[in-house]
Specification:
The complex is a heterodimer. Chain A has a single domain, classed as Rossmann fold (3-Layer(aba) Sandwich). Chain A is built from 8 helices and 10 strands. In chain A, the strands form 2 sheets. A 6-stranded mixed β-sheet of chain A has the order 6-7-8-3-9-10, with helices on both faces. In chain A, strand 9 and strand 10 form a beta hairpin. The two termini of chain A are 34 Å apart. Chain B has one domain. Classes of the chains: A alpha/beta, B mainly alpha. Chains A and B meet through helix 2 of A and helix 1 and helix 4 of B.
Chain lengths: 241, 255
């Protein structure tokens, strides 16, 4: 589904991505984990074509992303704390999205739109929404077109416990439908139950990539945060970094 | 692209800056026309206001609008839409909103009080100034990542075109006053969109008769067809060049 070949990106002297190769397939739920500044967001932005890598290639559905914009029809992206135009109403935002992606076939996925009760805020200007409400709007937009790939950047941050559960339930369901889901989160317990694969990044390098079960056996730990702590220790990570 | 332009206009049109700008132009135009009984003098007053206000509002508004919609631009670009259409939509939407403000605030009273050639020239250079200053502002915004630095640079550009540049021209004129400088100054004027706008409109007014030999020479040039083509051509370049560099850079930059 997504194939990344020796991807390298430098910002000045800082190596944000250091020769990363990764193959992600349908049905995976990949947790992208790493300390702040480890290159997670750079990697995600590279997949979305927002950052142009220096070296390496990214293929989505066997198409090189440099040659086309239409591959993004396959992707639903939920950014970290989206910021929207101030004077636009929630309903107008959904209308725009429908128009941008109107070539899409298949029915819309209105599950989150319904469960988060977006309809009730359709006439509210986006500037009046709280952080959590904006997250709900972002999540509904990301799932709306039934994309084969979902990229969720800190999806549960800012959400109340009930909405967080609704979103996790939806993520789980999409995973069972065979979609590829990439999640970055610092709240490891949130993604623990659903993760099938783990990618651990540090200083722009991919230090671990494999099934979660395998990581558990390797580390001898049962949960995700302890397994990650094991990886961090193994790679000599210290907080002063 | 059409949807994105309409969407952005819907956002910008409700912006308080645009509303204040429209009202300011409206009040200034009305006041100047009611104070002066000679419409030529009123137009000269409006010209002086426009030359100061339009560039700074356009530069600052465009810069802030770009930085404020940065995250949204990212989100839009994660959709199947090309970078070129996103940046062009932004440019077109900003300009439609700003030009509507000029048309409503200044255009309508001008056409009511003085439906003459001079008024049309004044409107036309306001549109040109808007188009070119917004292109310059977008160019600054896509090159500079930091919002404060971007706004600072826009302010500096405005200051440069309005004050510093004229100082430099004066210095050159004094230093080389022994030589015939009419043609070189003509070229120097073309290198500053605000000066270009000033000269283009001034020479359409009767007042240019008072500007002496150089004024007569310029009137001879700018009044002719060649002169009009020259100033229109320079304005077109002041729009196309910054916009083109913006589009090329935005197409390959990291967001």
């Amino acid at each position: 589904m997504i194939q990344i070949d020796s991807l390298t990106k430098r910002f000045g002297k800082l190596k944000a991505l250091d020769n990363i190769s990764l193959f992600m397939n349908e049905g995976q739920l990949l947790s992208l984990i790493g300390p702040n500044g480890s290159g997670k967001t750079t990697l995600i932005k590279s997949i979305l074509g927002l950052i142009k890598p220096e070296k390496g290639n990214i293929l989505v559905d066997n198409k090189n992303i440099n040659t086309t914009d239409s591959y993004r029809n396959l992707i639903g992206y939920m950014p970290q704390m989206g910021k929207f135009p101030e004077n636009i109403k929630v309903g107008q935002l959904f209308t725009l999205w429908n128009k941008i992606r109107n070539k899409q076939e298949g029915p819309l996925d209105n599950d989150l739109f319904e469960s988060f009760d977006i309809r009730s805020m359709e006439n509210k200007p986006l500037r009046t929404l709280s952080g959590g409400m904006r997250q709900k709007v972002s999540a509904s937009l990301a799932f709306l077109f039934n994309p084969k790939i979902l990229i969720l950047d800190e999806p549960t941050s800012g959400l109340d416990p009930i909405s967080s559960e609704i979103l996790k339930e939806k993520i789980n369901q999409s995973h069972q439908e065979g979609k590829l889901i990439i999640i970055t989160s610092h709240i490891l317990s949130d993604i623990e139950e659903v993760t099938t694969h783990v990618a651990y990044m540090q200083d722009g390098s991919l230090l671990y990539y494999g099934p979660f079960e395998e990581l558990k056996t390797q580390s001898g730990e049962k949960n995700l945060s302890k397994s990650i702590a094991f990886l961090m220790k193994k790679n000599n990570y210290s907080v002063r970094h | 692209m059409k949807e994105l332009i309409l969407f952005t206009i819907k956002d910008i049109i409700k912006n308080k800056v645009i509303i204040a700008y429209t009202l300011f132009l409206l009040v200034t135009t009305l006041v100047l026309f009611s104070l002066e009984d000679n419409s030529g003098k009123a137009i000269l007053g409006i010209l002086n206001t426009i030359l100061i206000v339009t560039p700074i509002i356009t530069l600052i508004f465009t810069t802030i609008q770009y930085y404020n919609s940065y995250e949204f631009i990212e989100l839009i670009l994660s959709q199947p839409i090309s970078r070129i259409s996103v940046i062009i939509s932004e440019y077109v939407a900003i300009n439609i909103a700003l030009i509507m403000a000029v048309a409503a605030g200044m255009g309508i009273p001008l056409l009511i009080f003085s439906p003459e050639k001079e008024a049309l020239w004044l409107l036309m250079i306001s549109v040109f100034l808007t188009l070119s200053c917004s292109a310059i502002a977008l160019l600054i915004s896509v090159y500079i990542r930091d919002k404060a630095k971007g706004i600072g640079t826009s302010l500096l550009i405005w200051f440069y075109f309005n004050f510093i540049y004229d100082g430099i021209i004066l210095l050159i004129l004094f230093t080389f006053s022994e030589y015939p400088l009419e043609k070189p100054t003509l070229a120097l004027i073309a290198l500053n969109p605000i000066d270009l706008a000033r000269v283009t409109v001034m020479l359409q007014l009767d007042i240019s008769a008072l500007m002496g030999y150089t004024g007569a020479l310029y009137k001879d040039f700018f009044g002719s067809m060649t002169g009009i083509f020259f100033s229109m051509g320079c304005f077109a370049l002041w729009i196309i060049i910054p916009l083109w560099i913006t589009i090329v850079h935005f197409g390959k930059k990291d967001l």
